Please model this.
Amino acid sequence: MSSSTRPLRADAARNRALLLAAAEDEFVERGLEASVADIARRAGVAKGTVFRHFATKEALIAAVVRERLATLAAVARELHGGSDAGADLLAFMTHAADARRQRDLTFLLSVSADDPQVRDVGDELHAAIGALVDRARTAGAIRADVTEGDVFLLLCAPVHVVENHPDPPEDLWRRYLAILFDGLRPDGAHALPAPPPVLS
Model:
C-alpha cells in the first residue's frame, strides 16, 4: 500500500479534521486573508502540522472545498430514492441553501477550481443532483425543461436574494426558496426564453 493510500493514524486523522474545521472557521471570518498560522492556532496544533497535511495554503483550501462538495453529494445521494421525488429535490435544495446561509464558502470555489480532486468531487455532486432532478422530472414534480445545471445554479439563490435586505429575519430565505421551487413546478409553466446552461 502506498503512502498516498495508507489510512491516517488516529492522531493524524484527528489533526486533519481539526485543521479542516479550523480552516472553515477562519475562512468564514477572514476570507482569503486567513493565514496558515491563524488556522494552526485555532486548531491547537503547530504550524508545521498544517504543512504535514497540506503542502500549501491552496491545498488546504482545496481540501475544505472537497469536504463541502462531498457532504452535499452525500446528502443528494441519501435523498435519492425516497417516496416523493419532488419533496426529495426540495429537501436537497433546502439543505444546500441552509448550509450556504450558515457558512458561506462559495468564494473558495474559484481558488480551487483547477484542483483535479475538487473537479472529481464536483462531478460527483453534479451527478447526484442530476439523479434527483431526473427523478423529479420523470415524476412530473418539476417542469420538463428544468436541468441539473439549472438547479445547481439556483442552490444559492434564496440566500443571495435575502442579502439585499438590510436586516433579514433569520428564516426569510425559506420564503424565496418556496417561490423559487414553485417556479420549477410544471403548473402554468411557460416556455423558457434561453437554453439551459452548460456547466463544465
In short: Residues 94 and 159 are 11 Å apart (CA to CA). Residues 9-55 form a domain with the Arc Repressor Mutant, subunit A fold (CATH 1.10.10). The first helix runs from residue 10 to 30. The radius of gyration is 19 Å.
